[in-house]
Every structure is written in C-alpha cells, then in structure tokens.
Fold this protein.
Amino acid sequence: MACEETEKEITKKREAYRSFATRATLLFFTTMKLQHLSPMYFHSLENIQTIFTTCIEKTIQTTLTPAILTDALTKAVFRTVSAGLFPVH
C-alpha cells in the first residue's frame, strides 16, 4: 500500500537525521552548562536557536546531508561560544 511505503520512507529519512538531533541536543545542553563556570558564558535559548537556524539555512544552499549539517552546526556553535571564552577557564 502507498501509505505503508510512505511511512517507511519518512521513517528512513527521520532516522538519517537522528545523529544531527543528538549532536544538536548535546551542543545545546553543553552550552547551557557553561554558565556554571561563569555567568558571562550564558547563552539564551533564542541565541542558540538563531545559531541553529542560520546554520541550517546556510547548509540547505549546499548538498544537505546529515553529516554535513552536523559538522556545520558543530563548527557554528564552536565559533560562537569560543569567541566569548576567557583563557582562565
């Protein structure tokens, strides 16, 4: 049936992006925990969402694969967060 085939296709595509979702979650919560080192390291949810959205929008313009998207997101969060880190930590 077409319904079952569609469901399988959606499941396959969803599973392909699971690694991206896992990395995004890890990056979000790691970034949130930085504020325990210093309140200066606080990043709002809005800021993190902006990083994620911008990364996805830029990556969509190229060949979008889960690996490319995950790598781009990791680099974007790293650049943003590391720019504000103090060398003492």
User: Anything to note?
Assistant: The CA atoms of residues 41 and 82 lie 10 Å apart.
